[in-house]
Automatic annotation (TrEMBL):
Organism of origin: Salisediminibacterium halotolerans
Protein name as annotated: Lipid II:glycine glycyltransferase
A Pfam family hit: Acetyltransf_6
Biological processes per GO annotation: cell wall organization; peptidoglycan biosynthetic process; regulation of cell shape
Top-rank EC class of the record's enzyme: transferase
Gene Ontology CC terms, in alphabetical order: cytoplasm
Record's catalysed reaction(s): beta-D-GlcNAc-(1->4)-Mur2Ac(oyl-L-Ala-D-isoglutaminyl-L-Lys-D-Ala-D-Ala)-di-trans,octa-cis-undecaprenyl diphosphate + glycyl-tRNA(Gly) = beta-D-GlcNAc-(1->4)-Mur2Ac(oyl-L-Ala-D-isoglutaminyl-L-Lys-(N(6)-Gly)-D-Ala-D-Ala)-di-trans,octa-cis-undecaprenyl diphosphate + tRNA(Gly) + H(+)
Keyword terms of this UniProt record: Acyltransferase, Cell shape, Cell wall biogenesis/degradation, Peptidoglycan synthesis, Transferase
Length: 360
């Protein structure tokens, strides 16, 4: 697949998460005779000044990101361009008092592998896709036998679906989404504001799809999707938990698969599991819709200012030898930090919760 960009790299997308992440979107654009690299991130203040000076951490907005090579001169060794970028970005981080960075690289674009040496990026898990391009009938080829049976049974029992391009109203979707989040005891992070959903419509209407499953004239499930180029991303969803026997989540997936194939898209990206365990229940669920399609997902934890990093750890009595990053975040009980691991996980709390974004 020839993919060089995605919605996650659009500055307007990053701005959607300034409120939720408690920071501001910034873009570092590095351009030389060798080529161009762009890197967008949320910059947020560390609520623990050092000698009266405020420092910052940066993080990928909800979903995927990391630096992206947007242009490269012919015959240029990309490692030379990345080395020059690294030196410039190191200076930028010192000048801007940036201490640490956490990146969720894009599984489909492969920038995790490309910047692996610079960031010491680590493979975290696989994510799941439904391949629309290489199969005449992706429903038959990519869905598991049990998933196909659930879809057929639901359709026989009278479940229908509707795909709306550029929806003007998300009120019904929000009702299902918020109910699902409450049922799943989701953290505040996932209760996106009305302003957030209004921005989705206003800023990304041409890239927004609303898919609804209906039974007996009533909506029983809804999914929100982003499109970009030849990609479809399953973003958020919600279902009526009293109607699970009608398999609304399966019908939503079938609907977007049929629509995507008919409209010339190459891939539906579902994300991965809540954890990187091979038997993770959410990962196993998503595999039902992508038997043959996986993408490697990489993350990176980078310390740009070791001296200040150690000072903050000392000041907060934090053990720096921990898997939580940055480690002082737990001590500070700052809600935007507590969401790091959750937002970086599956992007969906359960069948019917957030799906597709996050670190999966």
């Amino acid at each position: 697949m020839n993919m060089t960009s995605d919605i996650y790299f659009d500055p307007a997308y990053g701005k959607l998460y300034e409120e939720a992440e408690g920071g501001t979107l910034e873009t570092f654009r590095f351009s030389t005779m060798l080529g161009t690299i762009e890197h967008s991130f949320i910059k947020r203040a560390i609520p623990e000044p050092i000698q009266g000076v405020t420092y910052y951490d940066i993080v990928t907005p909800y979903g995927y990101g990391g630096p992206l090579v947007t242009d490269i001169e012919k015959d240029t060794d990309v490692s030379e361009l990345i080395a020059a970028f690294q030196a410039a970005f190191q200076r930028f981080c010192i000048d801007e008092r940036i201490v640490t960075e956490f990146i969720r690289f894009h599984p489909l674009l492969g920038n995790g592998e490309l910047f692996q040496t610079m960031y010491d990026a680590a493979y975290d898990r696989d994510t799941v896709g439904t391949n629309l391009k290489d199969y005449d009938d992706p429903f038959q080829a990519e869905f598991s036998k049990s998933a196909r049976n659930d879809v057929r049974r639901a359709l026989r029992n009278g479940v229908t679906y509707r795909v709306t391009e550029n929806p003007k109203n998300l009120d019904t979707f929000k009702t299902f989404y918020y109910r699902t989040m409450m049922k799943n005891n989701a953290t505040d992070y996932y209760f996106f504001s009305d302003r957030y959903f209004a921005s989705c419509i206003n800023d990304f209407g041409d890239h927004l799809l609303l898919v609804e499953a209906e039974y007996d004239g009533a909506t029983i499930g809804a999914g929100l999707f982003f499109t970009w180029g030849k990609m479809i991303h399953w973003h958020l969803s919600g279902t009526d938990k009293t109607k699970l026997e009608f398999a609304p989540e399966y019908v939503l997936t079938y609907a977007i698969t049929e629509w995507g194939k008919a409209n010339g898209y190459d891939i539906i990206h579902h994300g991965g599991g809540r954890t990187n365990a091979p038997d993770d229940s959410l990962y196993q669920f998503k595999k039902k819709f992508g038997k043959h399609t996986r993408f490697p997902f990489y993350t990176a934890k980078k310390i740009w200012n070791p001296a200040v990093y150690e000072a903050i750890c000392r000041q907060t009595a934090t053990d720096s030898e921990t898997n939580f990053f940055p480690p002082y975040a737990k001590k500070l009980i700052h809600k935007t930090y507590r969401r790091l691991e959750e937002a970086a996980a599956a992007g969906r709390l359960s069948e019917g919760g957030p799906r597709g974004g996050g670190a999966s």
